[in-house]
Amino acid sequence: MAEARYSICVLASGNGSTMQAIVDACRTGYLNGSVVAVVSDNPGAYALKRAREAGIQAVVIDRKGLTQAEFDAKLLSFLRRIGPDIICLAGFLRILPSGIVNEFNRRILNIHPSLLPKYGGKGMYGIRVHRAVIENRERVSGCTVHIVTENVDDGPVILQRKVDVLPGDTPESLMERVHAEELKAYPEAIKTLMEGSGSVQQSIA
Ligand code: GAR
What we know:
By secondary structure, the chain is of the alpha/beta class.
């Protein structure tokens, strides 16, 4: 098989199902890329186990015992060493400092479980997002993949997938349906970045 064109580094703090979707999309050839490393700030992250099982380098930069600046410096140093074409935040619960965002300008993606700019920002992650969507009686929700900028859950949107909010939905049931869309959205967005034209694609060409 021809060598994958783009190298991808995934940053994940938890379960890693969106990371797995990216790994699988590379393995099937849907994406012309390969996941070269998975980095977590949480030694107990299931994402690390998934990475090891897939034969991918799994790296822990434990957030405990490190200041924010120390953590950021270690992460930057690792990213410089492996020099990935694309960095994917997959349930990564740290905010990237401007130094990293600028150095990998327009090459860092994030997935968020709402239709941004709605229900984004600091403190908005996981089930909290879906709870807020239900409380506000939204009729539609979904997920967003976007380019990471210095502001949390901001930056150019690559794609969104919508999900109807159904009568009787709970935060959990909505989360489940949005999550199913996230597993499709992330590989699609990465493909758009790799194959699309315009400024987004030029950033990794
Ligand atoms: C995903 O739902 C993702 O959108 C969310 O964390 C989950 C990670 O799932 N991210 C955020 O809320 C970021 N603001 P995973 O660990 O199974 O990939």
